[in-house]
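Students often ask why inverse folding is considered easier than folding. One informal answer: many sequences map to the same fold, so there is more than one right answer. In these notes we will look at a single instance of the problem. The structure comes first.
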C-alpha cells in the first residue's frame, strides 16, 4: 500500500467537508472563484497543493482552514442537507466555533442503551421507544434538564432566525454538545433538547442532519433508513415529555375519545410536564391510531386548544442561560489557549458575555 501524501490526506478531508455541507463542486467554484475543474482535482487529490487556494475553498464552504490542516483533525458527524443557504452558513459557523474549544468542555457519559434496528414501521418503532425512555429516566432523571446534566452533556445556544433551524448535535467523538436555537418557542426548545438526546443515544455513529421543523412525515406507515432516525428522535422527544403511560390515563375509551377525554387530568399532565399543544396532540393521534381510529386532526387541535391552557415554559430559558454561563466559565478558565481574536469570535458567535 502506498503511503498517503499530504495532498491525499487534505483531499480526503476537503472532500468529506464538501460532501457533508451538501453542496456541489459548481457551488464551491462559484463561491471561491476557483474553477470547478481545479476544485474537482483538489477533491480527488490530483491537484498540487497551494495552501492559499485550499484556504479560499475552505472559506467558501464555511470551514476553518486551520482545523482542516491540523494533525488533530477528526471528522465531525453533522450533515447540512436540506437546509437553506443562510441556515447552513449559520450552523457551520456555530459548529466551527464549538470545534475551537470542545476539548475544554466535559466529555458526556454515553448511556448504555441501544435500539433494535429491525423495525421500520411506525407502530413498531413507537413500541420499542417506550422501554428505552423508561430505562433512561430510571438511570438518569425524570426531566430533560436532569438527564442532560446527569450525563454532563454541554448545551450551547444562540439566537438564530427561527425559520432556519431548531437544533443539532455536534459530534466529534468523544466530544459532543447539543446546540439549540434560543429564538425557538420554549416548548420547541424543550422538545429539541430531547430530540437531540435521542440522536446522541442512538445515532452518534452516523452523520446526523441539522434539525429543521419538518423533517419527515410522522404519519407514514414505515420509514426509509434515512428517515428512521428522525422519526425515532421525534417520537423519543414526544414520549419523553409526555409518557405513554400518562397519555393512557387521560382517556377511558379511545373509541369515544371526544366524550371520554379527561380534560382535568390532561391539564394536570400539561402543567406537571410542561407539555406543549403539539406533543399532546400527536400523543392523542398516536393513541387513536393504535386503537384503529382515524380522527380529524383539526377538530382535535381546536378541542384541545379551546379547553386547555398551555403555559409558557420559562424554566427552559433559565436552563439555557445557566448552561451558557457554564460554557463561558469553561472557556474563560482556558483563556490562555486562545488568541484574543479567537476568544472574541467564540463569545460573539455564541452570544456569551466576554468577561
Ligand atoms: Zn433530528
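Output (designed amino acids):
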Amino acid at each position: 500500500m502506498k503511503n498517503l501524501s499530504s495532498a491525499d490526506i487534505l483531499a480526503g478531508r476537503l472532500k468529506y467537508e464538501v460532501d457533508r455541507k451538501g453542496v456541489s463542486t459548481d457551488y464551491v467554484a462559484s463561491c471561491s472563484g476557483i474553477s470547478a475543474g481545479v476544485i474537482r482535482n483538489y477533491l480527488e487529490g490530483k491537484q498540487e497543493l497551494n495552501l492559499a487556494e485550499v484556504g479560499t475553498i475552505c472559506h467558501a464552504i464555511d470551514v476553518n482552514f486551520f482545523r482542516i490542516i491540523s494533525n488533530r483533525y477528526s471528522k465531525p458527524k453533522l450533515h447540512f442537507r436540506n437546509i437553506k443557504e443562510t441556515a447552513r452558513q449559520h450552523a457551520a459557523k456555530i459548529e466551527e466555533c464549538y470545534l475551537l474549544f470542545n476539548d475544554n468542555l466535559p466529555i458526556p457519559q454515553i448511556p448504555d442503551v441501544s435500539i433494535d434496528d429491525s423495525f421500520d414501521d411506525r407502530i413498531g418503532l413507537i413500541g420499542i421507544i417506550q422501554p428505552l425512555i423508561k430505562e433512561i429516566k430510571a438511570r438518569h432523571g425524570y426531566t430533560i434538564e436532569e438527564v442532560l446534566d446527569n450525563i454532563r452533556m454541554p448545551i450551547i445556544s444562540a439566537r438564530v432566525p427561527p425559520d432556519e433551524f431548531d437544533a443539532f448535535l455536534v459530534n466529534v467523538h468523544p466530544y459532543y454538545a447539543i446546540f439549540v436555537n434560543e429564538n425557538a418557542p420554549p416548548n420547541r426548545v424543550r422538545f429539541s433538547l430531547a430530540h437531540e438526546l435521542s440522536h446522541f443515544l442512538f445515532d452518534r455513529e452516523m452523520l446526523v442532519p441539522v434539525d429543521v421543523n419538518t423533517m419527515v412525515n410522522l404519519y407514514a406507515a414505515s420509514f426509509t433508513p434515512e428517515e428512521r432516525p428522525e422519526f425515532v428522535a421525534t417520537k423519543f422527544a414526544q414520549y419523553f415529555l409526555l409518557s405513554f403511560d400518562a397519555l393512557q390515563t387521560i382517556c377511558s375509551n379511545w373509541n369515544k375519545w371526544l366524550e371520554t377525554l379527561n380534560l382535568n387530568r390532561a391539564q394536570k399532565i400539561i402543567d406537571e410536564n410542561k407539555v406543549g399543544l403539539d406533543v399532546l396532540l400527536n400523543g392523542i393521534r398516536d393513541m387513536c391510531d393504535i386503537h384503529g381510529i382515524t380522527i380529524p386532526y383539526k377538530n382535535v387541535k381546536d378541542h384541545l386548544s379551546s379547553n386547555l391552557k398551555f403555559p409558557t415554559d420559562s424554566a427552559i430559558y433559565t436552563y439555557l442561560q445557566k448552561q451558557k454561563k457554564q460554557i463561558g466559565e469553561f472557556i474563560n478558565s482556558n483563556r490562555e489557549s486562545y488568541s484574543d481574536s479567537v476568544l472574541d469570535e467564540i463569545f460573539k458567535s455564541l452570544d456569551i458575555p466576554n468577561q
